[in-house]
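Work Package 3 (structural annotation) set out to generate three-dimensional models for the target panel prioritized at the project kickoff. During this period the team completed the workflow that converts sequence records into discrete structure tokens, so that structures can be stored uniformly alongside our sequence database. As a representative example, we reproduce one entry of 344 residues exactly as it appears in the project archive.
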Amino acid sequence: MVLVTGASRFLGGYLVARLAQDPRIERVIAVDSQSPTKDMMRRMGRAEFVRADIRNPLIGKVLRGAKVDTVVHAATMVKPPKSGSRAAMKDMNVLGAMQLFAVCQKSPEVRKVVVRSTAAVYGCSAKDPAKFSEEMSARQPPQGGYARDNIEIEGYARGLGRRRPEIAVTLLRMAPLIGPNLHGSVSRYLNSPIVPAILGRDARMQLLHEEDALASLERATVAGPAGTFNIAGDGVVMLSQAVRRAGGIPVPVPFPLLGALGRLVPGSAARDFTTEQLEYFHFGCGLDTTRMRAELGFEPRWTTLQALDDMISGAAIRPLVSKDWLRSVESGIRELAGVSGGTR
């Protein structure tokens, strides 16, 4: 019996659909505080959807009533809801995970807990190594709420494993997701004709294709061991290279002005980015995936560059205006930012 949280979102919903097609799994229960779309409900097939908030102790009745033995937690929010605040986001993320893990601890049938975490827990700074291994921690404490929430969630998950050693706790620290169907931060950043870039920096990005993200979650759920695993595609791509492949024009600006200038550039998504997303486009982050292969037994299908190209072709990203207009706007932004030099 498998229970998956976050079923109305991309990863949770499609994972439920995959697990529902596995004949080895007797029953699949999808949980979320919001109902999935009608299309997603059809994809879920035989899975049962329960509309419930994991912060409510009633989630315990669902686990015990269905005799769930495997719990997949994929409901962590990246940014506050439109009508909410940072406090509301933390309440949903951290308190929700605490309640869920407390229920798992009290449920004798639970034997495995899989948590979708993020590489954002490593932070992004100029002091970072070329690649983070799972034993490493952030060189500078992450400033973003999403990263801090996941650090706390991981801590509570490890606490569950210490209190109930028979429960296999698996943490998947995923690189930024990208793909034709997932409108994540990298996709939104590149889907602009003019892309504000950090002056003097060219972030090294290691990405994860949406299909590999789902496949790694499925692997961890069905046959994966306990432990912490970095999940990412092979290789890296420089931010400037990604912008050019997407058909945009990078405009170098000082980092403190990135968000402000993003609000001035038509079509730019930088205005809506969280702190950790802006830091990622400043420094990037590399992951050591040796343990992913050796212990989890997972091999990504897509490299970082292949995932990027699949997103670009699938989303049909292309320049929306003329090159001359782009150059004139670029020149104006340079002048506003006090940056000298001609266009490239």
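The radius of gyration is 21 Å.
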